[in-house]
Design brief:
The chain has 13 helices and five strands. It has 348 residues and is mainly α. The protein folds into two domains: 213 residues, HUPs (Rossmann fold, 3-Layer(aba) Sandwich); 92 residues, Orthogonal Bundle (Tyrosyl-Transfer RNA Synthetase), CATH 1.10.240. It starts with 14 loop residues before the first strand and ends in an 8-residue tail after the last helix. Bound molecules: tryptophanyl-5'AMP.
């Protein structure tokens, strides 16, 4: 590969894109690492585009009816958390064909070796990579297409998506180089705050995930107050009290996780939380955390349940969002076809 083209970011309008897979119910990890921050970005006045990535979800088997339900539920979670569909664009990926089209072109730009190095691929495909779908392997190239179909410049995500965003940058740079253009921005990942990696409540070394077989490992956005409190009460900890300083959380993954969750939910820094609870036992910290989690999450759950009563309204919102998304992505992807050398003569 030749030297990367220096892409002047000033050429591109600041625009935020991010997505969530409807491959299960959303968790506290999705809320703190993504949704909550999506709302903050919307409120900063930058153009924000958010997507339920249903094409990504089917890289592993999804029951069709459940997939539809989870897509609506995810959209309801966005709105309940504070995304205003009049200000942000909110839609599901498969309604805007530009994603799949650009994804194909990026499959021809990205290299097998790049995909093979993705830790998420290695984790998800496991030892039996031969049996994994081709879509799962090419997943990051569709993700790059999601972002670059809008020439988005910033992508708020949790820590686990960092490597995929580095690959998005590599694809943009290689495309610009190969075709000698300055067409795609080199995106900035936005990974910030106390909860960029919320861990399992049962094992502080594993990420909290919607696909973990143990429901006790996560807080779901659909859990009621009793369930949230019970899961926090039973969360794994060590026998030590909370430390005097943040350094004291080193090598204590479960303790660190609960403190980080508290900080992210309360909007405090980890230092402030540690200062407030220095020396406290988990027996007294956990009820405080549960109280805070219920106070923050239960209004969202209530609103999600209300929105889910009217699935046609959610579909209407997604459809309108898709129309607005299409209006931005279509000319960009048409230009890509032109750059790549495809004839576009319909209607002439
Ligand atoms: P997904 O659906 O796994 O997660 C959605 C968002 O939630 C974040 N997240 C977490 N943050 C902190 N702690 C956790 N335990 C945790 N679990 C999940 C993720 O980092 C993510 O920001 N590949 C993406 C979806 C995607 C996408 C995109 C994202 C597809 N196209 C384009 C950004 C831009 C994914 O699987 O996220």
């Amino acid at each position: 590969m030749s030297e990367p083209v220096q892409t002047p970011q000033t050429k591109f309008t600041p625009r935020i894109f991010s997505g969530i897979q409807p491959s299960g119910g959303l968790t506290l990890g999705n809320y703190l690492g993504a949704l909550k921050r999506f709302v903050e970005k919307q409120d900063e006045g930058i153009e924000t585009i958010y997507c339920m990535v249903d094409l990504h979800a089917i890289t592993v088997w999804q029951d069709p009816e459940k997939l539809r339900q989870q897509t609506r539920e995810g959209a309801a979670a966005f709105i309940a958390a504070g995304i205003d569909p009049a200000r942000s664009i909110l839609f599901n990926q498969s309604q805007v064909s530009a994603h799949a089209e650009l994804g194909w072109i990026f499959n021809c730009v990205a290299r097998m070796g790049w995909m093979g190095r993705m830790t998420q691929w290695k984790d998800k495909a496991g030892k039996n990579a031969e049996a994994a779908s081709l879509g799962l392997f090419a997943y990051p190239s569709l993700m790059a297409a999601d972002i670059l179909a809008y020439q988005a410049t910033m992508v708020p995500v949790g820590e686990d998506q960092k490597q995929h965003l580095e690959l998005t940058r590599d694809i943009a740079i290689k495309f610009n180089n190969d075709f000698k253009v300055d067409f795609f921005p080199v995106v900035d990942p936005i990974i910030e705050g106390a909860a960029t990696r919320v861990m399992s409540l049962r094992d502080g070394t594993k990420k909290m995930s919607k696909s973990d077989p143990s429901d006790q490992s996560r807080i779901n956005l659909t859990d009621d107050s009793d369930m949230i409190a019970a899961k926090i009460r039973k969360a794994k900890t060590d026998p030590e009290p909370l430390p005097e300083t943040v350094d004291g959380l080193k090598d204590r993954p479960e303790a660190k996780n609960l403190v980080n969750i508290y900080a992210a939910l309360s909007g405090q820094s980890v230092d402030q939380v540690v200062a407030e609870y220095a020396g406290a036992q988990f027996g007294s910290f956990k009820p405080k955390l549960a109280e805070l989690a219920v106070a923050k999450l239960s209004p969202i759950t209530t609103e999600m349940n209300r929105l889910m009563q009217d699935p046609a309204e959610i579909d209407r919102i997604l459809g309108q969002g898709a129309d607005r998304a299409e209006a931005i992505a279509r000319p960009i992807v048409d230009k890509v076809y032109d750059i790549v050398g495809m004839i576009r003569s319909r209607g002439r």
